Write a sequence for this structure.
């Protein structure tokens, strides 16, 4: 496979995970201000959007990106396996929610672990499906 692409994607996945965990380290007031500012923008497009729904969508989306990056990194490496592609998501989500237990005003939520895991699996599985579909395309 392509070792260089795999390394680049691995670094991107690691950086993205640090971004996710960095947001989890923000105190509740700062996190709320950040999501509140985004909510104002989103409500221009979706007037019924609430802060709660926006935060849950953000959880799902950030982990979908992580799943896509991780799956792509593993798919381009010589060491692909399904457990290697799918197991990092739940582990990262558990760590993420554990981090929040130690941040002022934040709390770890088991529902968010499930939501993060669903986002990760969605991103990973869609990426693996795309790889499979691209591989089956006849070359011109």
């Amino acid at each position: 496979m392509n070792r260089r692409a795999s390394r680049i994607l691995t670094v991107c996945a690691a950086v993205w995970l640090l971004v996710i965990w960095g947001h989890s380290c923000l105190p509740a007031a700062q996190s709320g201000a950040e999501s509140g500012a985004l909510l104002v923008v989103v409500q221009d497009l979706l007037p019924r959007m609430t802060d709660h729904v926006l935060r849950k969508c953000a959880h799902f989306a950030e982990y979908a990106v992580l799943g896509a990056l991780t799956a792509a990194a593993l798919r381009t490496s010589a060491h692909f396996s399904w457990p290697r592609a799918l197991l990092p998501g739940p582990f990262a989500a558990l760590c993420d929610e554990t981090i929040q237990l130690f941040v002022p005003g934040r709390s770890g939520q088991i529902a968010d672990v499930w939501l993060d895991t669903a986002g990760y699996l969605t991103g990973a599985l869609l990426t693996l499906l795309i790889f499979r579909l691209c591989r089956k395309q006849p070359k011109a």
Remarks:
- Residues 57 and 89 are 16 Å apart (CA to CA).
- The helical segments are 3-24, 28-45, 51-75, 82-86, 88-100, 110-136.
- The first helix runs from residue 3 to 24.
- The chain has a mean pLDDT of 92.
